[in-house]
Amino acid sequence: MQNDLSFLQLVLDASPLVQFVMACLVLASILSWTIIFDRSRLVRKARASADAFEDRFWSGMDLGELYRSISKDKANMRGMEAIFHAGFREYARLREASNADPMAVVEGAHRAMRVALSREMDSLERHLSLLATIGSTSPYVGLFGTVWGIMNSFHALGNVKQATLNLVAPGIAEALIATAMGLFAAIPAVVGYNKYSDAVQRLENRYEDFMEEFSNVLQRQAHLR
Questions:
Q1: Backbone φ and ψ of 162, nearest 5°
Q2: How many CA atoms lie within 13 Å of 50's alpha carbon, on the beta-carbon side?
Q3: Most buried among 56, 64, 92, 185, using CB within 10 Å?
Q4: DSSP codes joined into one string, 39-86
Q5: pLDDT range class, residue 64, cuts 50, 70, 90
Q6: Which of 3-7, 94-98, 194-198 has the lowest mean pLDDT?
Q7: How many other C-beta atoms lie within 10 A of the C-beta of residue 146?
Q8: Dist CA 73 CA 87 (whole Å)
Q9: How confident is the model at residue 2 (pLDDT cuts 50, 70, 90)?
Q10: What is the predicted pLDDT for the residue at 173?
Q11: Backbone angles phi, psi at 19, to 5 degrees
C-alpha cells in the first residue's frame, strides 16, 4: 500500500508539464489497448467468415445459388463473401451483354473483386498506423517528461548551498515515472502492431489466392457457354 501511495504522491508532486506528459501517455495507452482489442475481434471474425465461406464455396454448391444466399444478408457481408459477391455480380452483368468476350467478362469480374479486396483491406488496416505511431513516439514523449523533470530538479539545487541525495531523489524519481509510462504505452502498441499487421497480411494473401481460384472457375464457365 505504501508503494502505491508513494507512486501516487510522486505523480501528484510532479511539475504541471510532466503531469501533462503522463496524462497523454495514459490516454495513448488506453487508445492502443482499445485498438488492439478491436483488431483482435475483427481479425478473428474475418478468419471465421473466410473458413465458413470456403467450406460452402468448395462444397459444390451452384454459384448462382450461393450468390443469392449471400445477397440476402448484405449488411453482414465481409471478407471473402464480399469479394465473391462483387466478382459474381459483375460476371453475371457482363454475361448478359450480347457477344460478350469470355476473357473480357472474366477480367471485368476480376477488377470488381480487386476493388472489393481494397475495401476489405482498408477496413482491416484501419487504425494500425495509429498503433504504430503510439509505439514509436511514446518512449520519446516519456523521455521528454523525464528530461524536463530532471532539469527542474537540478535547477532547484541552485537555491541550496549543499546538494544531497534526499533533495534530488524525489524529483528524479517522479521524472523517471514518465519514461516508465512511455514504455508501458509503447510496448503493447508495438507488439499489437506487429501481430495484427502480420495477421492482416495473411488474410490479404488468402483473399488474393481465392480471387485467382475463383477467376479460374469463372473462366471455365465463361468458355462453356
A1: -130, 120
A2: 21
A3: 185
A4: HHHHHHHHHHHHHHHHHHHTTT--HHHHHHHHHTTGGG--THHHHHHH
A5: confident
A6: 3-7
A7: 22
A8: 17
A9: very low
A10: 74
A11: -65, -40
